[in-house]
Amino acid sequence: MDRTGAGVVVxxxxxxSHGVDKPxxxxxxxxxxxxxxxxxxxxxxxxxxSRRRFNPGLPNLRQAHLLHAELFDELxxxxxxxxxxxMGENVTTRGIDLLSLPTGARVRLGESxxxxxxxxxxxxxxxxxxxxxxxxxxLGRRADGEVVRKAGVMGVVLAxxxxxxGDRVWVELPPRxxxxxxxx
Length: 184
Hints:
By secondary structure, this protein is mostly beta strands.
């Protein structure tokens, strides 16, 4: 794998119960094959309520949610006041273009944690409870008309470890050819 870029963890968040916003923590612990310890979405099998209803035996491809703080800057210019954790992410980063990474990219967080990207987070209607219009603001269109989903990326935890604000972030790209992230 090629190693590229270095960013920083801005904040880490978790919440035991389901709901959009997640309180910031001093530290979160990632568990290999499970997700974020103490988070409602932690588990080897699907934990998201909307997906669990249809097939609770599916693997959990959404163990960790990473979101780039640069989105907050973009949203602020549109009049939205968003802070880390408010959109349900576990790890808020800065300095890594998460949305441009391919499926299978490995994001190393801090000393030992590794999250392998499985797909994009599809902005959902729950974002409207934060501020009306937020869901639409997290969507865009490319020049060819294709929808751009800006609400972060999802992944599975390959290697566990503690992650805190201020930790470094590196990306290891999978072998080519790269497959763009799709909603998961």
